[in-house]
Known about the structure:
The longest helix is centred in the first third of the chain and has 22 residues, at 3-24. The chain has one domain (3-52). It has helices spanning 3-24, 41-52. The radius of gyration is 15 Å and the shape is elongated. It is built from 2 helices and no strands.
Amino acid sequence: MTQEDVVLTVEYSVRGAMHAVYSGSASTCPSRPVHHALAEPATALRALRTAFG
């Protein structure tokens, strides 16, 4: 497991926990939108280089 995998796992765990708390309480806080990094050309190019590199 790489450092990036750990960050991704922690981010999704925190997001899931926040969603559970917000939906189970009377909170009106909206959940944050997911950042789609692969929509950025530089990030997509780096991912391709890593995958096929």
